[in-house]
Amino acid sequence: xxxxxxxxxxxxxxxxxxxxxxxxxxxxxxxxxxxxxxxxxxxxxxxxxxxxxxxxxxxxxxxxxxxxxxxxxxxxxxxxxxxxxxxxxxxxxxxxxxxxxxxxxxxxxxxxxxxxxxxxxxxxxxxxxxxxxxxxxxxxxxxxxxxxxxxxxxxxxxxxxxxxxxxxxxxxxxxxxxxxxxxxxxxxxxxxxxxxxxxxxxxxxxxxxxxxxxxxxxxxxxxxxxxxxxxxxxxxxxxxxxxxxxxxxxxxxxxxxxxxxxxxxxxxxxxxxxxxxxxxxxxxxxxxxxxxxxxxxxxxxxxxxxxxxxxxxxxxxxxxxxxxxxxxxxxxxxxxxxxxxxxxxxxxxxxxxxxxxxxxxxxxxxxxxxxxxxx
Length: 375
Known about the structure:
The chain is an alpha+beta fold. It has eleven helices and seven strands. Pfam families: HATPase_c (PF02518), HisKA (PF00512). GO terms for molecular function: kinase activity.
């Protein structure tokens, strides 16, 4: 921070030295020319002439007044003149100093302007110019990110509103048929009831996603940590997701080093793994294997979920952990989510002091969660 002001301090010191030099030269010039130099006689004659004509003094009285006022108080007049000269020079120098604040003020005002031009300040304020441009770029990026997030949120609301309307319309239609056709065959009635129940479950899921959005925006993450057996948790996870794996012929293989424990909030960490695993299942090829691996390296525990499927484009890979981002906005209403799963997982992992990342190639996609070891 001190080095930032080095150039400005040097410039101000040079200006102060210049003021002192100018004052000394001016004082010497006044003393040499006006008091003891070539202008002394014309000045004395002018003063005596003034006393004779204006003050009505005789020549000798005017000459004596000049001697008492000027010649006997030469040092006082010299000091007074020098002080006045310093004040004048200091005033103009102060005006030069205040221009720096003027330039900074213009730079601060430029932060409010929506312009692609960088803020420019004098060379001695280069450090302030860089900082203002960093702030300007940061504010512009935040505004852009907020606008994009708001747009994605609005799109999400539209998606969910449409998705809710679809199962609701089906439920109302099938219930109307059941109500109107009292003598409907039992087999057909059971079919309609089953479809209505499925649509009801889908409607419940979408409504829960609306609540999820509200909780994610308003609720801070509070952790209740305990020692967790990671092998047991991941094995249980694979068993619980078997109904989702089976329809596509997928399998989950868990490979975890024994006795790996992590100090974390069990419920929230399970939610992280659930969200990542759901994502892996949704985007894996049919009849493929999802590998869940965990190992301890130094002071970190790394848990990875590897699946084979369509690669995630690099430009989307950097955004999948953002709130309300859907990797595929065209996914069907039966599989499309609110775009919150990975964002929530990221928040929870960060609250634990860890990181979450993803890499994707044509062959596989790997999500890795890194957490501190049990202390």
